[in-house]
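Honest question from a wet-lab person: if I give you the sequences of every part of a complex, can you actually get the arrangement of the whole thing, not just the pieces? Trying it with mine:
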Amino acid sequence: MRMRTPFLALLAAAAFTVPAAAADKLTVYTYESFTAEWGPGPQVEKAFEAECACDLEFVAVADGVALLNRVKLEGQSTKADIVLGLDTNLTAEAKQTGLFAPHGTIGELNLPGGWKDDIFVPYDYGYFAVVYDTEKMKEPPKSLKELVDGDPEQKIVLQDPRTSTPGLGLVLWVKAVYGAQSAEAWKKLKNRVLTVTPGWSESYGLFTKGEAPMVLSYTTSPAYHMIAEKTEKYQAAPFAEGQYMQIEVAGVTVNGAKNPLSEKFMAFMTSTKFQEIIPETNWMLPAARVDKPLNPAFDKLVKPSNSLLLSPELVLQNRKAWVDEWLSVMSE
Amino acid sequence: MRRALAPALLALAALSILIGGAFIGLGVEAARNPAGSFSAFDGYLLRVARFTLWQALLSTALSVVPAILVARAFSRYPSFVGRSLILRLFALPLALPAIVAALGVLSLLGRAGYVADALTSFAGVTWPGIYGLSGILVAHVFFNLPLATRLFLQALETVPSDQWRLASQLGMSAGPSFRLIEWPVLRSAFPGIAGLVFMLCVTSFTIVLTLGGGPSASTLEVGIYQALRFDFDPARAVALTLVQIGLTVVVVVLLALLGASMTGEAAPSVSRRRYLLPSTMETVVNAILILLAGVFVIGPLAAIVASGLQADLGRLATSAAVLRATATSLVLAVLSALLAVALSWSLAAGRRCLAVAGRNARPGLLERVMDGGAGLVLVVPPIVIGSGWFMLLRQSVDVLALAPVMVVAVNAAMAMPFAIRAIRPAYDAAGERHDRIAAQLGIQGWNRLRLIDWPAMRRPVLTALMFAMALSLGDLGVIALFGSDAVQTLPYLLLASMGSYRTADAAGIALLLGLVCLGLTLVADHLGKGSDHA
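Yes, you can. This is the full assembly:
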């Protein structure tokens, strides 16, 4: 019975606050690992809500690709004000939907190669890399060419580009380096491939279990092992041709453009508060200025000699053909 | 008797709505851009369809044939130390997410597994691992041999004890008693069980890709998943799903030809125990069979336990997220399992009602649908059901709020084919034995259920519940699609941990998941033993 009075009071309060709350709410669609307990979501929510005196709600779907499909499905009726978590391989397709509005003023970015896009704003970036087990591999490949031509007994675990972002990343990486000779490169690399898993987690699981000495992952992967597990056993191999880049972005939807909080959030996203949360929760590099120095483990990471990135339009036009080419070589 | 048809028709209607609604949702979307359904039929599809069929047939044969022998071995020894533990552990693989099972199998047979270590240190050879068809087969047998064993054992338990007494009075040895008593029961259960295993293997996805060694080992399910999740091409997804269903129907129909229909024993049994004494030779063979099957299933489980023990279990077991996920998993699994059993019981009753009505005729379409046909729901990928309903409902209701309902409905539908395999043989056997006497005594309705059916059905129903719960516990299909925070289950949390470097946590959660499942089987077994005096 003790419950009754506060409950009624709460109900009454809720009844009065509903209209106000509806106006001061921002809905952000993102991917699951962003909102995980250990992801950036909880901290970002706390920091932004303190600043805006509003309610920030995350709705999470599996990953960036699912995110775009979800928004496409919902179309004009989407509840999302902001979609956070697409990467540059998806932005061209996202623009074609006409569901996104140009962004307003944002803070200064700090991105290798700069950034020009009137709709999407980057919030972090990273590089794909071959991560290897230093106890099993004394001489890791020093270039993509060495990976392709190396000893077929030293295996690597890859992801399927049809179902995984890093998997697609490697297809683009090979394209960026080998161009028209990509099929021949895959033909050679195929002998080194232990297996191709549907997603990143399965392949990383096989790698840490010791099934293969190499896996396709990110340059930032060793940072996790150094910070959380205090081990330098796993390292990323710097490649002479450069590393392929992944830039993660957010965009305001046409509906969201009517919500004044959207612009606030986009500005917040490129502010130091948001950016300082990213490295040790999303295990990616900040896309704008941070005041607090990053954990020293990040200084030990591979600094790419060259950032490789194909334009979103080129990827949109060729993705299917390139993945089909990969498929026909790999399933021979 | 006709009254038994109504619930069965209701159950069929529910299943049809679940599947039909999804196809309508996808169909409407597909109609906008139907090109994908035609472009789906290319050379690659042919190769994938061939591989899907080939690996599924091999996996089924390798799981089901040994399962017959192992089940028979178990049935010969109704009590030995560890028997019930082994049989309980046999329910576990079903509750494990595919990647956990794959990693467990690799702990033994992988390039860094125990076999590889042993070979390197004793013989100095490098073990190439089991990537390729062999890996797929080993993992599928790990999943399905224990399942098939339990189901065949369930069927063998329907043999009336009077028959065993008679056999022992006649001094039958293993050969004749197998041929005359056990084989007919096994054979009548065979098409259903083999069909179930086949369907599970046809739709395999993570195991095929992860252990298959490359995209040449791929299934139609991968194509369906890709079409919906990545290319967003509903037309292609619908076309591939129909191909998958078509292939399965052909195989299930062919399997049905291998089976036989059984006429149960009409008289109620009066004796309780078995009297058959196996010969020494047979005892040795059976012991070896049980040992081999036990090692094959328990080996990877032990590896999963070993890596789970390295996790910080104290922290995990008290973490709010894990506790919440455990509760969510339990609630969803229990609800789905109850629904699955209710559906299966209705269908079994309806099918029997039709079979009795047309005793000498060939089974009609409706009767077939109520038996194996409803099982085809297994080859409609959860992602198809989920996306279809999502598309159908997104205009009118808050889809996220519906996520728990969808999860329960889809899990129940997916678990139903398992439940029906456990329930149907027992229901038919009990019906043969009790129908006439119940009719003579005028016992029907609730009284019949309570006094006559329930005592006979208690064990099979609880076995069915156990499998349904195990299956729902491990399921991820629909949840992954709705991706709603409202239904964070243990497997969801497990994959989320794996997806963000937390491998040890994931191993720990896998162990917890196994323990939860084992706990549920203990409860089910306990309840099932309750009234042996009946």
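Two things worth pointing out. Chain B touches chain A through 48 residues (CB under 8 Å). The longest helix of chain B spans residues 399-441.
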